[in-house]
């Protein structure tokens, strides 16, 4: 195994308007679904990037920006999101 493994980024986001849709879109539920997917597909070195209460129309979301910095630095090999 290599001494350095690229990160599998799991990205969760929920705007205040999305909260009205109920538990199925909650951050905790998104994390569970994404972790199960990663495990099923043997993806390791998982790191969560989360933006809670921030609209997807804003591109300066802290979690998103941190994830994209990782991509630009070559540290992230895969990004998984729930639509």
Provide an overview of this structure.
With 83 residues, the chain is an alpha/beta fold. The chain has one domain. The chain has helices at residues 27-40, 62-72; strands at residues 7-14, 46-52, 76-81. Strands 2-1-3 form a three-stranded parallel beta sheet, sandwiched between helices. The termini are far apart.
- How many whole angstroms does the radius of gyration measure? 13 Å
What is the count of distinct domains? Answer: 1
Task: Report the oligomer.
Answer: single chain
Spatial order of strands in the largest sheet: 2-1-3
Give a brief rundown of this model:
With 83 residues, the protein is of the alpha/beta class.
Describe the secondary-structure layout.
Elements: E1 7-14, H1 27-40, E2 46-52, H2 62-72, E3 76-81
Parallel strand pairs: 1-2, 1-3
Notable characteristics:
83 residues; alpha/beta; three-stranded parallel beta sheet; 30% helix; flat
